[in-house]
């Protein structure tokens, strides 16, 4: 009697043959958006190798080079492709370093939102009762304020408590905490709704009968079945976090001047835009808009893929 063994496909093979890869390769907008996003990430990671100068190195900055126009314009300098800012820093280099800071803050802030929102949403949906009421009312109170208002209030409290100098030293960590705390209710409400639907299913009842603890049921069994909406929200929230950081830096409540992010670059250039130095604001603004746009396009594509009723191929 002949026995044939069927080779089990590897994880990579299963991924290549998955629906998400199939739909991704069919959608030109998604592929283009992902390519642009990957370009931004790669340029940000390798900023020290790509950028002509280090905007953090004060010895390499000459104030006499301030407000030089892009190299292709009259009075431009070939050393500075996109011109210089008010301190003589190369705009191209500051955009690369600023993108890295903006992306780092955005991704870490979303990570904190995930941790808080998923934990609170799971607890509220699974345990229900008074725990659910308390946590959701707390989320509702926070949602009644705008994200930017919460971020401004928390940022002002941190600045007052720590002082401007200490706040500047830990500005990145502070912004991650501020933006993360301001946005977690979005995750909590979505996860809670998914948990309420999942916890009534047979596999949850079977896990309870087998004597599994609540934490194991919540994180090992229910949470994996709630990942689709979490993925979609995370993509959009990265864009929102980057915009929040840019807005706070523009208002002077974000990163200090010696740590340029896209928002602080736009803020610096805004003071000089009417004097003719439009490039200080224009180029960081274009990069910020492009980055947020491609992330939002990827988020919309993910939403459609995970919702068959919306996806049209």
Produce the secondary structure layout.
Blueprint: H1 11-16, H2 19-26, H3 28-45, H4 47-50, H5 91-127, H6 129-143, H7 147-162, H8 164-169, H9 171-198, H10 202-209, H11 214-222, H12 227-250, H13 262-270, H14 279-306
Helix pairs in contact: 3-5, 3-14, 5-6, 5-9, 5-12, 5-14, 6-9, 7-9, 9-12, 10-11, 12-13, 12-14, 13-14
Protein name: ABC transporter permease
Organism: Photobacterium frigidiphilum
Membrane topology: Multi-pass membrane protein
What features would you describe in this structure?
The chain has 313 residues and is an all-alpha fold. It has a single domain, classed as Orthogonal Bundle (MetI-like fold). Helices cover 69% and strands 0% of the residues. The chain contains 14 helices and no strands. The chain has helices at 11-16, 19-26, 28-45, 47-50, 91-127, 129-143, 147-162, 164-169, 171-198, 202-209, 214-222, 227-250, 262-270, 279-306. Helix 3 crosses helix 14 (279-306) and helix 7 (147-162) packs across helix 9. The longest helix is centred in the middle third of the chain and has 37 residues, at 91-127. The model has no long low-confidence stretch (mean pLDDT 79). The chain crosses the membrane at residues 29-50, 105-129, 141-161, 167-184, 222-243, 278-299. Keywords: Cell membrane, Membrane, Transmembrane, Transmembrane helix, Transport. One of its GO terms (cellular component) is plasma membrane. Belongs to the binding-protein-dependent transport system permease family. It is found in: Cell membrane.
Number of strands: 0
Which CATH-level-2 architecture?
Answer: Orthogonal Bundle
Indicate the mean pLDDT.
79
CATH-level-4 superfamily name: MetI-like
Question: Helix coverage percent of residues?
Answer: 55-70%
The succession of helices and strands, N to C, reads HHHHHHHHHHHHHH
Number of separate helices: 14
Rg over CA atoms: 24 Å
| Strand percentage | under 5%
Low-confidence runs: none
- Structural class comes to mainly alpha
**What gross morphology would you assign?**
globular
CATH class: Mainly Alpha
């Amino acid at each position: 009697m002949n026995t044939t063994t069927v080779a089990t496909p590897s994880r990579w093979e299963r991924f290549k043959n998955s629906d998400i890869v199939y739909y991704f390769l069919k959608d030109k907008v998604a592929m283009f958006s992902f390519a642009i996003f990957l370009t931004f990430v790669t340029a940000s990671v390798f900023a020290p190798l790509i950028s002509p100068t280090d905007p953090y190195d004060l010895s390499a900055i000459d104030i006499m080079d301030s407000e030089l126009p892009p190299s292709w314009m009259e009075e431009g300098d070939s050393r500075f492709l996109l011109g210089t800012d008010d301190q003589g820093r190369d705009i191209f280099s500051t955009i690369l370093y600023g993108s890295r800071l903006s992306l780092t803050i955005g991704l870490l802030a979303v990570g904190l939102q995930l941790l808080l929102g998923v934990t609170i949403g799971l607890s509220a949906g699974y345990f229900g009762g008074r725990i659910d009421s308390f946590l959701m009312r707390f989320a509702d109170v926070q949602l009644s304020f705008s994200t930017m208002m919460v971020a401004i209030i928390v940022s002002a409290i941190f600045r007052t408590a720590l002082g401007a100098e200490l706040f500047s030293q830990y500005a990145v960590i502070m912004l991650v905490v501020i933006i993360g705390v301001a946005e977690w209710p979005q995750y909590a409400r979505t996860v809670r709704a998914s948990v309420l639907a999942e916890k009534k299913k047979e596999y949850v009842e079977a896990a309870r009968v087998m004597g599994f603890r609540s934490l194991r049921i919540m994180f090992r069994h229910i949470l994996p079945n709630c990942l689709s909406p979490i993925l979609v929200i995370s993509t959009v929230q990265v864009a929102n976090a980057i915009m929040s950081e840019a807005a706070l830096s523009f208002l002077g409540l974000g990163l200090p001047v010696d740590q340029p992010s896209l928002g602080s670059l736009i803020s610096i250039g805004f003071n000089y835009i009417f004097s003719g130095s439009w490039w200080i604001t224009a180029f960081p603004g274009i990069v910020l808009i492009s980055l947020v746009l491609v992330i939002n396009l990827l988020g919309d594509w993910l939403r459609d893929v995970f919702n068959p009723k919306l996806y049209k191929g």
